[in-house]
Amino acid sequence: MSRRTRLWLVAVSGTGLAALLVAACLELPPFGGSSHPYGERAVRAALARHTANTIASVNFDQRAYDTLGEMSILFAAVLGCVVLLRQARDEHRARPEPAEVDLPVRRYALIVLPVAVVGGLYVIAHGQLSPGGGFQGGVVAATALHLLYLGADYRALERVRPVGLFEVADSLAVSAYLVLGLAGVLAGTAFLANTLLPYGTFNTLSSGGNVPLLNAAIGMEVACAVVVLLARFLDQAVEIEQGNGKDDKDDKDDKESEKENGKENGA
Amino acid sequence: MTAVPHVLPYLVAVWVFLVGCYGLATSRNLIHAVGCLAVCQSATYVLLLAVGYRDGATAPVFSDIEPGSRPLVDPVVQALALTDVVVGATVTALLLALVLQVSKRHGTVDPDELSELRG
Question: Hey, what long-range contacts does A61-69 have (CB within 8 A, 24 or more apart)?
């Protein structure tokens, strides 16, 4: 299809879609209205189970099964990235060079790093009480580690971040979520039903029954998943190079042989 | 015209979605296309949060407010938006990994140049 035809097709179908969507929007309940039946029921259910953060209650209690699916998507995506971004046969690993970092950047990164890690863990731990939770805190804690890459260099990051260990921890966290769900079945209730543990005192760390445990499992899973994902992408950017390490001085030659390799693979 | 302010946030979501679709259809670079998909997806955040909004309401978190003292925005759509963000981020990561492999194997990230099959 030529570019011109494609643009015409986009214009026509886009206009049609826009008209339908606008017509649908006009029929929606008015913005800011006071009728939220599901929201009110969710709040009531959360309060009945002593969970101060209603969103954590929705995610880890009322819709815990959906969160299992969401977590599986995350796990599968990480698995896919690990497979796609592995070192290919025609590539080699180069030792990353130690890099000079400006002193203010270095100081700032090293001061903020512990604060950010603790902040991330705090957000995970208080997921059932205040805004935040496993997903948000996991991302904060995982990206905080990478301040070491900014403040020092890649080798320092690799030393504090054994990727294999994080991959194992990722799958352990997924299994922990499943085991917590199965514990409900073994105790004679339903999968992921929040009826096993006492609900505790409202607005304390141990309140909410299952919620803090599932929240912690998700926090661990997200933190490990983000570390593994970023490690794979950073490996591609920093360590893995084309060619088998012999003739990478001459860039032009390298590209030529790369094309030939591609053709051979295609044949 | 009095109805417009009541649906304006929904129309913003529609606009963001269509802009993302336009970008996807006219993209000359796969990384740009992945970015456009993220724009499409952010339309769903706007829509979800707009559906759950209530005038004069506060966040549905009771660590510092008394239950029942103030109206609350809808927590269900906020949880859905959270799910949406996580899935969006993982899909973006997976697509970028695919783009990386495409650029390595084919030497280009222009979708128009990737028309012929190679096995």
Answer: A61/A194, A61/A208, A61/A209, A61/A210, A61/A211, A63/B79, A64/A181, A64/A192, A64/A194, A64/A210, A64/A214, A65/A191, A65/A192, A66/B83, A67/A214, A67/A218, A67/B83, A68/A177, A68/A178, A68/A181, A68/A192
